[in-house]
Amino acid sequence: MRHCRVFSFVLILQTIWFSSSAQECSISKVNRIDCYPETVPSVQEHCENRGCCYDPKIDANDDVPWCFFPTDYKSYNLTNYKPTIFGFQGMLTLASGTTHHFTKEIQQLKLQVFFETENRLRVKIVDARQSRFEVPITTPKVTNAATNLQYKVETRSDPFGFIVTRKDNGVVILNTTVGPLIYADQFIQLSSSLPTHDIYGLGERRGNALVSTNWNRLLFWARDQIPKDHANLYGDHPFYIGLENDGKAHGVFLLNSNAKEIELQPSPAVTWRTIGGILDFYVFLGPTPEAVVQQYTDVVGKPFMPPYWPLGFHLCRWGYGTSENTWNKVKEMRAAKIPQDVQWNDIDYMQQHLDFTYNHDKFNTLPNMVSDLHNNGQHYVMIIDPGISNNQPKGNYPAYDDGMELDVFIKDPTTMEPIVGVVWPGATVFPDYTHPSIGSYWEKQLLRYYELVKFDGVWIDMNEPSNFGTGSKSGCPNNTLENPPYVPHVTGGALQDRTLCSSAIHHSTTHYNVHSLTGLFEMKATSEALESIRKKRSFVISRSTFPSAGLYGGHWSGDITSTWEDLRKSIVSIINFNMFGIPMVGADICGFSGFTNEELCIRWMQLGAFYPFSRNHNMKAAKAQAPVDFSTSAQVPMRNALLKRYLLLPYLYTLFHSAHVNGTTVARGLFLEFPQDSNTRKIDEQFMWGSGLLISPALYQSASTVNAYFPAGFWYDCTTENLGKRINSNGQYETLQSELHGSIPLHIRGGNIIPAQYPDLNTKKSRKNPFLLLVAPDNTGKACGELYWDDGESLMTENPSITINFVLSGTSLTSYPSNTGYSGTMLLSYVSIFGITSKP
């Protein structure tokens, strides 16, 4: 039942008694737009004060709003409509004679509509009289309206609304006339009908790939939160893809970093609700899901091109305790001949949990270990948190002293001194990643540590930012930034919970506006510092993310638990973050917290070998779970899964290059690749690499088979046991053998040529091996593929490379090289053409 929990924040109302007529309130349940999103029990008086309809006569088990907008609700009227060189604009004026039902409603707004490209539309609604916070990320600047538009935009004047229609078939992508625009200082709401129930994205969240439209409220406010359903997690990505009935796709992105909710309802419809900033919408017309992702990354930025080595297998543990224990694990992995490219350390390597230090007693051999890794073609990554200790003796901790000298810490709104929270080192202050001097400060700290330990990448954690307390050690002031008239239903019930005061002072704004941007801006500072220090491509993995994060690094899905359900749900995270333009993504293989077991960890290693970012990591309270911590029989399937990954790394690297250049996904759900096949729309326990490789993991305890779906076409088995065995599918499920100590089912889609390379124990060694081509003809006997290759580490601005296109047609397999700047040796020693019925 809705409106049954006591919630401490109530929207301030002007006192007005209003009762809508029965006719104006005759709205079907599924079409009701929520007028009272708070959760307080005395809802009728507040609802009618707001000028809305009240009807509690519904099933107590559903979430239909009791308080909803009448059909004649007065809001803004559109006037002064006029064309511009970008599209058109107009003024939105709060209807005269109406009483404010929401506190500090803005009297006059400006509507700006930009026809940016033929398939990208931008709609901005801003305060006409004074500026409000806008997200400071770089987006495309257009000088003229595009032509040959694939969409049509219409407006309604009284009350205001706009309608976006797909020109070729008349599908209405958005129609905001279904509910009123509310635009108050700290409460903005806009609703629209949806053309489909098949909605994907809207993260970071834990759940199914297909988002429920059954009164589903999704929360956006970065939080240090163990992933669980119906909670706001580490990142903020208010972007969705809708799959229409005919298989076409569209996308909608709200560029807003304030705390917000997005509510989906079964009509179907969507309501965006935020407590700050502006409304800044992008609409993408696709028409394919991949085209929508490309159009989205055209706006937020295309993903970074990773070095080659992060595509290998990574190993970490919070709880090695010493550098010797860490080093010994590396040596055990080598002795067991299990591929490993990267060794990591969690916070236990630090001296008293202080960033940019290591414990010289317990980790005294750390520099030697890192040197050994490098001598064996391996790499090293360590963790950095944003909390900087402020209680070290003056002159003993440069990270604090330098920050104070440059004045780069977030400030307490009361004292204007650095705000103090509590994280792993105890009392800490927090760098302001919006400060103009943050780049030089952050690089100086990383460089000082690099001179001690030659790390190769950086893992940034706790950057929501996380605070073990609430607000600050001295408390937060009592103002409307700390206690807004309305608080989205965030986990913890308050904006400050487990983070900083909302009114904390950044360089040019307040934490209220930039809280969810912390991770993004730290990624940017870290990536730029790494490139400056190492003169090579950077590698950064961040917990908190925001649109544009893919420009600077990747993500892992946080503190998941060692359960079969979290194993399954990890696939959704991989799919979603690829849609968000962050393809370098993975989950902690075998789980972070709790206790794994041999069966679960084998299955997770088999799946995790095909995460774009493949890392096994867990916490110190749990038992060790590296492959070598299990029986020798368990190590066999783990090793084989990793060797299969390493075999296919040239294909994966090529997909990352395509993502970097074109904004495409690396891993994708079947619904993204086959949107016209309705069977794929609920499948999120299989996924693909690119368009050519289908991955069908075993995800259930005691399973020995997988019920895998194969969209129509030819599919060729890619396992060693059944290499080249063909399935000719009409769009059907097949029962595949997947014994625990066997292989993960992999299938190459007919029409694809997959470049591969004989695997070795790390990428430096495997890159010296000959290449292979796995050629999978379609039903016409044709196939094509591509290989991108370079030295694997040079900055992209000074990077000799080669691209080779492969084409199978008739009886000929041909390669066409381009961008032939790469001068290294590339030897092709094996070609396997599947489906040939007679010997050539």
Summarize the structure in words.
The protein has 840 residues and is of the alpha+beta class. The chain folds into four domains: 1-71, Irregular (Spasmolytic Protein, domain 1); 76-300, Immunoglobulin-like (Sandwich), CATH 2.60.40; 319-393 and 428-465 and 516-655, TIM Barrel (Alpha-Beta Barrel), CATH 3.20.20.80; 664-833, Immunoglobulin-like, CATH 2.60.40.1180. It is built from 14 helices and 45 strands. The strands form ten sheets. A nine-stranded antiparallel sheet has the order 3-4-5-6-19-16-15-12-13. A nine-stranded parallel sheet has the order 29-28-27-26-22-21-20-31-30. A six-stranded antiparallel sheet has the order 32-33-34-39-36-37.
List the SSEs and their pairings:
Elements: H1 43-49, E1 53-54, E2 67-68, E3 76-83, E4 87-94, E5 108-117, E6 120-127, E7 151-157, E8 160-166, E9 172-175, E10 182-184, E11 187-193, E12 199-203, E13 210-211, E14 216-220, E15 237-243, E16 249-254, E17 260-265, E18 269-274, E19 279-284, H2 289-300, E20 313-315, H3 323-335, E21 342-345, H4 366-375, E22 379-384, E23 388-389, H5 398-406, E24 421-423, E25 426-429, H6 438-450, E26 457-460, H7 511-514, H8 518-534, E27 540-542, E28 554-556, H9 564-579, E29 585-586, E30 588-589, H10 598-608, E31 614-616, H11 632-647, H12 649-662, E32 667-668, H13 670-673, E33 687-689, E34 693-695, E35 705-710, E36 713-717, E37 726-729, E38 732-737, E39 746-749, E40 752-757, H14 763-766, E41 771-776, E42 783-790, E43 801-809, E44 812-818, E45 828-833
Parallel strand pairs: 20-21, 20-31, 21-22, 22-26, 26-27, 27-28, 28-29, 30-31, 41-45
Antiparallel strand pairs: 1-2, 3-4, 4-5, 5-6, 6-19, 7-8, 8-9, 10-11, 11-18, 12-13, 12-15, 14-17, 15-16, 16-19, 17-18, 23-25, 24-25, 32-33, 33-34, 34-39, 35-38, 36-37, 36-39, 40-41, 42-43, 43-44
Organism: Ciona savignyi (Pacific transparent sea squirt)
GO biological process, one term: carbohydrate metabolic process
Domain P-type: 23-71
